[in-house]
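#lab-general

N.A. 3:47 PM
ok so I finally got the sequence cleaned up, no stray characters, all 343 residues accounted for. can someone with queue access submit it? mine expired

B.Y. 3:52 PM
send it over

N.A. 3:53 PM
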Amino acid sequence: MSQRIKTAISGSLPKPAWLAEPEKLWAPWQLQGEALEQAKADAMRLAVDDQLRAGITVIGDGEQTRQHFVTTFIEHLSGVDFVNRKTVRIRNRYDADVPVVIDKVVRTKSVFVEDAKRLRKLTKGPIKFTLPGPMTMIDTLFDDYYKSREKLAWAFAEILNQEALELAAAGIDVVQFDEPAFNVFFDEVRDWGVKTLERAAQGLSCKSAVHICYGYGIEANIKWKQGLGEEWRQYEHVFPLLANSTIDQVSLECQNSRVPMELIAMLKGKDVMVGAIDVATSTVETPEQVADVLRRALKYVDVKHIHGCTNCGLVTMPRDIAAAKLQALAAGADLLSKELGLD
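B.Y. 4:20 PM
back already:
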C-alpha cells in the first residue's frame, strides 16, 4: 500500500450551470423530475472525474445531489415544515429563512444511500461521504417542538447514525460529519456536542471524521473572520475533547488562516485532514504552497496521520478555479511525499 500523503475534498464541489445556478449556496435546481435526477447523476460523475484527473486519492461525490449540506438531509425527515419558514441567525453570523421543527423528527427511509452506491461504482479507490453533524443541524432550523437544543441534537444523532451505518454498508470508507458549529458554541460542544457526534458515528465499520472550519467563502463568513483577531484559537476549545473521543479523523482549516498550527498537536493519535486550499479566494495555490502547509503540520503530527484537504467546500467557486485548486492540492501532497521519500 502506498505511504504517500492522502488527499481529499472536505465536501462540496461547484455544480454545473445546467444543474444549478453557479457559485451560490441554496441554488435552485435548473431541472425537474427525471431530468433532474439524471442531471444529478451526471454531475456526480463529472465531480468524481475531476478529482481522479487531479490526483485526489480519497474521492467524494462533491455533494452534487444536494442544494445545501444540511437542509437537503433534513428535507427527507418527517416532523419538519419547509413551507412556513422562520428567520434565524446562523452561527451568530447571518440571517436565513429556515425550516421549522413541528413534531418528532423521524427518518422514514434512506437519504443518501443510493448516491453512495452510485459513488462506489465510479471508483475502485477509497471514498468519503459527508453528513451534517447534529449541532450544525439544529443551528440551521427553528425548533418549535423539542424546545431544547440538546434534545433535538440527540434526536438527530440517532437519525444520523441510522444513515451512517447504511452508508458504511454501501461501501463508504469514511463517513464525515460536518460541524462548523463546533467553532462557535463551545459550552455546548463540551457539555453534549461531542457526545452527540459520537452517537452519530456509533458502531461504524468504516472510519469516522468530523469537519470543523470557518465556513464557505461567502461574505458573512469572511467578515466574521476579519474580526477574530491576530490568532484564531477556536480549535483550542474543541481539539482536546475530540482527542479523547471515538472519532477517527478531524478536518480543519489552515491555508491563509490565522490558526496557530501548533494547536493540531492536541489531536494526538487522530488522522488530521489539513486544510491546504483556501475556499475564500479565487487565487489558485501553487503545489509549493500546499506542500508548505502540510510540511508545517508535520512538526506536530506524524506523517502517517496527515492528509491534505480543502479548508471547506468549493461549491461557491468557479468550476475552472476549483479544478485547478484540486490539482494543486494533489501536486502539493505528492511534492512533499517525494521530499520525504514516501512510496
